Amino acid sequence: MSTVKLEINENIAQITINRAEKRNALTQEMWQKLADYCDELTQAKACKLLIIKAAGNKAFSAGADIEELTEIIKDEQRLVANNEIVQQAQLKLQKLSIPTIAAINGVCVGGGMGIALCCDFRLSVDSAKFAITPSKLGLLYSVEDTKRLVELVGLARAKEMLYLGKTITAQQAEQWGLINLLVSNETELSESVIKLSQQILAVSSYSIAGMKSTLAFINGADLAHETEIRALFNQAFSNNDFIEGANAFLEKRAPEFT
């Protein structure tokens, strides 16, 4: 059974995160598959829309696969390589010329949030919860991920989520601008995705692609000292706080940062 599936029906592509029994936790292989599918869709000229959904009814994605992560964080080089695959997959998803919809059916944290932030539209059930938690591990959030978050919720809300690693409800996420539409259940979620898809397919795909490129350009101003910021992100993987955070994770205890 494939843990990430791509289906193309005429001009609509659908990627399904398919590990419901593991709350759709993401492995390195799954991130690579997502990147490969984005490459495939870049070449699929007939596709006019991508929908990303998840199997089951509890989680869009609960984040990294715990069993795999337990091994990865023991090896700094492997950890950095894994992070590069994650960032590349997200960047490829963000840069797709076709509009993208995330259908969020439950918990959306860690890598799940990363995927959702890369999509153009986010529709969610009202029972979903959202969180970004690198501060609880002594890590940073990447430049790209941070920028996506700030663009959606603003600087003040981004600080609240990033500094505190707090979990917010779907209702809060909608109020903050993280979610485009909130619905009551999975049936309504599917219906709403279909309705939005029909609206997208009714307008010019050429116009959407051009507007998407224009918006990316407008929001793509270089950050001051970007090289230094990126270096800080990479250095975090070898700092003492991450060593403590990783050990606390492995030992299933609260970290004691200095």
UniProtKB/TrEMBL annotation:
Keyword Lyase: yes
Keywords of the record: Lyase
Gene3D superfamilies cross-referenced by the UniProt entry: 2-enoyl-CoA Hydratase, Chain A, domain 1 (3.90.226.10), Lyase 2-enoyl-coa Hydratase, Chain A, domain 2 (1.10.12.10)
PROSITE patterns in UniProt: ENOYL_COA_HYDRATASE
GO molecular function: lyase activity
InterPro entries: ClpP/crotonase-like_dom_sf, Enoyl-CoA_hyd/isom_CS, Enoyl-CoA_hydra/iso, Enoyl-CoA_hydra_C
Pfam family, one: ECH_1
Keyword Lyase found: yes
GO BP annotation list: fatty acid beta-oxidation
PANTHER family the UniProt entry points to: ENOYL-COA HYDRATASE, MITOCHONDRIAL, ENOYL-COA HYDRATASE-RELATED
Protein family according to the UniProt entry: Belongs to the enoyl-CoA hydratase/isomerase family.
Protein name (Swiss-Prot/TrEMBL): Enoyl-CoA hydratase/carnithine racemase
UniProt organism field: Colwellia chukchiensis
